[in-house]
Amino acid sequence: MNSPTLKDLIEDPRILVLPGVFDGLSARLVQSYGYKAAFVTGAGLSESRLGVPDIGLMGRAESLEGASMIAQRTSMMLLADADTGYGNAVHTFETVQRFEQAGLAGIMLEDQVWPKRCGHMAGKAVIPAEEMVEKLKAAVEARRDSGFVIKARTDAAATDGIGEAIRRGNLYAEAGADLVFADALLSEDDIRSFTSYVNAPVSVNMGFGLRSRATTPLIPAKTLEKMGVAVVIYPRLLTSAAVRGMQLAMTALTLTLDADTSLEHPDLQVPFEEYNELLGMSEFDDLEHRHSSP
């Protein structure tokens, strides 16, 4: 029996939960918890690789390199953030082919103007819906494998209201998008409306345990499933948790600098052996053993 594809998981009645990964380590961590698929967060790549916010400072080459490196370090199916496709329909065509060749299982394309901004930041603007439709048609034409997922994101809810987001969602589905996402919906009613009136599988994004007033309300995955949502992504969970962990560790280190105490904080660190095992050290040891000279 063939293994399920990313499309299969999207079309399954059970909600597909995609944690956001941003490097090989985070991907290995997510996979160790049994996840079959994950989301390569563009914000996470921009923040971790460049140390800059998600405001379009990272281009296609850097995004593709980051996603490709992650794909090489995990057997999970990866849905990658490809921003706006990095240009017009021609650029989008090329973007799809490059990401597919790099081993990704799908990409997300959005209808913001370039340079784009994180969906929950102020100052966003969207391109005409008709232009995005042509970019999506080019994306569908570009893929070699029909199983490669095209996820269409609209940011129109923030600029033009939920009605326009729904209209665009249906246009994008008609253009061939396999999955549709309206970013920055601010209420459960908006999520229900978008899911009910868009004729395609719907994705939402969620925070985890911390919500600012500018973001989508926090809703459990099972509740989203009952609302008809097909996919939920948690793009900032691991990046935010990593920063909090590093802050705690640096605070502990700083407090010891003027004191005669050692830095013993097992609660803040993963044991060395566990850390190496997460990175697949036993596999490399086995490989070295099998190919060592007598």
Polypeptide structure, described:
With 294 residues, the chain is α/β, with parallel strands linked by helices. The protein has one domain: Phosphoenolpyruvate-binding domains (TIM Barrel). It contains 13 helices and eight strands. It has an eight-stranded parallel β-barrel with strand order 1-2-3-4-5-6-7-8, surrounded by eight helices. Helix 9 (188-197) links the parallel strand 6 and strand 7.
* Sheet/helix structural class: alpha/beta
Unreliable stretches (pLDDT < 50, length at least 5) are none
Return the CATH topology: TIM Barrel
β-strand number: 8
Shape: globular
CATH-level-2 architecture: Alpha-Beta Barrel
How many structurally independent domains? 1
Distance between the termini: 41 Å
CATH superfamily: Phosphoenolpyruvate-binding domains
SSE layout:
Layout lengths: L5 H6 L4 E6 L2 H9 L4 E4 L1 H9 L9 H12 L5 E5 L7 H13 L4 E5 L18 H14 L6 E6 L1 H5 L1 H13 L4 E4 L5 H10 L4 E4 L15 H6 L4 E4 L2 H20 L15 H7 L2 H10 L4
Parallel strand pairs: 1-2, 1-8, 2-3, 3-4, 4-5, 5-6, 6-7, 7-8
Q: What's the short story on this structure?
A:
The chain has 294 residues and is of the alpha/beta class.
Jot down its keywords:
alpha/beta, 294 residues
